[in-house]
């Protein structure tokens, strides 16, 4: 499927529907809609569809792979489209230097070594990168992210990471979990964020919670998410696998 006026309209309608659903979730939870940012996840789609999503009104895009981010960043830059890019997947240290100038923030900070490498590169480039610590709150071996003990250790080194602004936590719920378990996991992430905030160095303020995807963002919003990472709901009706 090629990017056409028809696909633009499908993506526009998807974007409007997702915005309405997020607004409804905020209202149901007694939260202000302005408290929640939608990050449109474009990790599976080609650049032209990601661009069409920006034309529908989504100016925050998330990518899993650095190479895909580079391609889409260039595609949008060539069309003078302002996008704030979020790295939501693993970032290898050898790709930091090229990727860093393109990023608004990284959601997947999962080791002290990566934090030190990001800090060093940001200082060298004269910038400060917003970063969320990826937490494996259930400590499930099949999931990525830091266990609680390593989160505490990383925060203890925060003052030696001048190129990073540690601003919150990122987490994913267990795949296939019930709604009750999902809510419990998101609540645990929020509670952990609050606990860490109370003991973190005074220079750190963990205000953000990046959690919730297409299937569970309403539960995430109910438990305090400030960013939701929505992908598949935005691409319904788009045959991007054969684009």
UniProtKB/TrEMBL annotation:
Residues 55-235 form the Alanine racemase N-terminal domain. Pfam families: Ala_racemase_N. Its cofactor is pyridoxal 5'-phosphate. Belongs to the pyridoxal phosphate-binding protein YggS/PROSC family. It comes from Aureliella helgolandensis. The modification N6-(pyridoxal phosphate)lysine is found at residue 43. The keyword rRNA processing does not apply. Keywords: Pyridoxal phosphate. CDD domains: PLPDE_III_YBL036c_like. GO terms for molecular function: pyridoxal phosphate binding. InterPro entries: Ala_racemase_N, PLP-binding_barrel, PyrdxlP_homeostasis. This is Pyridoxal phosphate homeostasis protein.
């Amino acid at each position: 499927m090629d990017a056409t006026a028809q696909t633009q309209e499908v993506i526009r309608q998807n974007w409007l529907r997702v915005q309405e659903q997020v607004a409804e979730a905020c209202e149901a939870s007694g939260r202000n809609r302005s408290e929640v940012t939608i990050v449109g996840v474009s990790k599976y789609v080609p650049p032209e569809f990601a661009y069409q999503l920006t034309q529908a009104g989504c100016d925050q895009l998330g990518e899993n792979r650095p190479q895909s981010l580079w391609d889409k960043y260039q595609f949008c830059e060539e069309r003078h489209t302002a996008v704030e890019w979020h790295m939501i997947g693993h970032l290898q240290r050898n790709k930091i230097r090229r990727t860093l100038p393109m990023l608004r923030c990284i959601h997947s900070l999962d080791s002290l070594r990566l934090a030190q490498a990001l800090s060093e590169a940001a200082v060298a480039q004269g910038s400060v990168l917003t970063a969320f610590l990826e937490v494996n709150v259930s400590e499930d071996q099949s999931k990525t992210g830091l266990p609680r003990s390593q989160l505490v250790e990383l925060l203890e080194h925060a003052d030696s990471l001048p190129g990073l602004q540690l601003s919150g936590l990122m987490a994913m719920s267990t795949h296939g979990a019930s709604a009750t378990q999902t809510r419990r996991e998101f609540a645990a992430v929020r509670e952990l964020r609050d606990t860490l905030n109370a003991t973190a160095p005074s220079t750190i303020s963990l205000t953000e919670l990046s959690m919730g995807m297409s299937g569970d963002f309403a539960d995430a919003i109910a438990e305090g998410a400030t960013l939701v990472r929505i992908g598949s709901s935005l691409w319904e009706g788009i045959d991007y696998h054969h684009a």
